[in-house]
Amino acid sequence: RALVDAEAVGDERAVEAALRPRTLDELVGQERVREQLSLMLHAARRRGRTPDHVLLSGPPGLGKTTLAMIIAAEMTVPLRLTSGPAITHAGDLAAILSGLNEGDVLFVDEIHRMARPAEEMLYMAMEDFRVDVVVGKGPGATAIPLELPPFTLVGATTRAGLLPGPLRDRFGFTAHLEFYEPVELERIIRRSAGLLEAPVDDEGCAEIASRSRGTPRIANRLLRRVRDYAQVRADGTGTRAVARAALDLYEVDRSGLDRLDRAVLDALCRRFGGGPVGLSTLAVAVGEERETVEEVAEPFLVRSGFLARTPRGRVATRAAWTHLGLAPPQEPQM
Ligand code: ADP
């Protein structure tokens, strides 16, 4: 599954570091977010104050970490990185907060997964730049107030709706990142190809972009596979033909579907006449766990209009039949 996973796979973050845009100007797409952030940072610089806290929401691989790094770079301050799952006690957060210097940017990835008591500590830290650190247990426990220097919190979450209201309300600016258009992905791929010194022509970029699921992380990953193929099996240049051959070899098809995605559609159309069919039945047919089909394959199939979830079960759309090269039934379900 690794090729079309929007999360970083293995030690990919290290490889990605080289491709990360460092300034707002280098960032491709997300025009509105870029302009809004640029204005906000400019104003903060002019006033000599730390910028408001920023919440970034959106699916993985769209540039949340990159934006946090850019905010710190534009303010020329250090960035501290942590993540919600790493903060299991209020004490973990207190330790991080007490290590901050004035103006630092603190990036908390997956902020919705932070422990509850830490969340409450964060409310106060964000609003008043102080926290109460509780020392001891039971009746002898005492709260020691701790003043914090002003800092900027940048929180990232896959969905802003996952955050409790009080936390959400303490961000001065919220940006929602959307999936990228093919032309934007082409620009990202062209830029990355330049940095990797891997020649890819315009048609090659377009071919990779169309298979990248609207996600820069996946685009960069597919580019690396095309580069391998171009170097070993061709003359080094990623043309359309080379990109096609490479991505066909890795079983990422022209719409960005991988083997599991196609197996689900194939079972749905060929074995169940396009549905409706229950999730469990469909999962058995492709030899996968129910959760895998529902959480790994379905979201992208639904987003790209190949599959619909109905109260009676899963249904293949007309586009699914066409994609598989099959004739849709006379009276398609959808
Ligand atoms: P997230 O934190 O949302 O999971 P990242 O910021 O780690 O995503 O981005 C994943 C990869 O995609 C990085 O290597 C980054 O260089 C690239 N990327 C993301 N957004 C952009 C963009 N707008 N322009 C260029 N590259 C991008």
TrEMBL record:
E.C. designation(s): 3.6.4.-
Source species, domain of life: Bacteria
Binding residue positions for DNA: R290, R309, R314
Region of interest (Small ATPAse domain (RuvB-S)), ranges: 181-251
Binding site for ATP: L19, R20, G61, K64, T65, T66, E127, D128, F129, R170, Y180, R217
Residues the entry annotates as binding Mg(2+): T65
Enzyme class: hydrolase
Family matches, as Pfam families: AAA_lid_4, RuvB_N, WHD_RuvB
UniProt GO MF annotations: DNA helicase activity; hydrolase activity
Domain AAA+ ATPase as annotated: residue spans: 50-181
Subunit relationships: Homohexamer. Forms an RuvA(8)-RuvB(12)-Holliday junction (HJ) complex. HJ DNA is sandwiched between 2 RuvA tetramers; dsDNA enters through RuvA and exits via RuvB. An RuvB hexamer assembles on each DNA strand where it exits the tetramer. Each RuvB hexamer is contacted by two RuvA subunits (via domain III) on 2 adjacent RuvB subunits; this complex drives branch migration. In the full resolvosome a probable DNA-RuvA(4)-RuvB(12)-RuvC(2) complex forms which resolves the HJ.
HAMAP family: DNA_HJ_migration_RuvB (MF_00016)
UniProt name for this protein: Holliday junction branch migration complex subunit RuvB
Lineage: Bacteria, Bacillati, Actinomycetota, Actinomycetes, Propionibacteriales
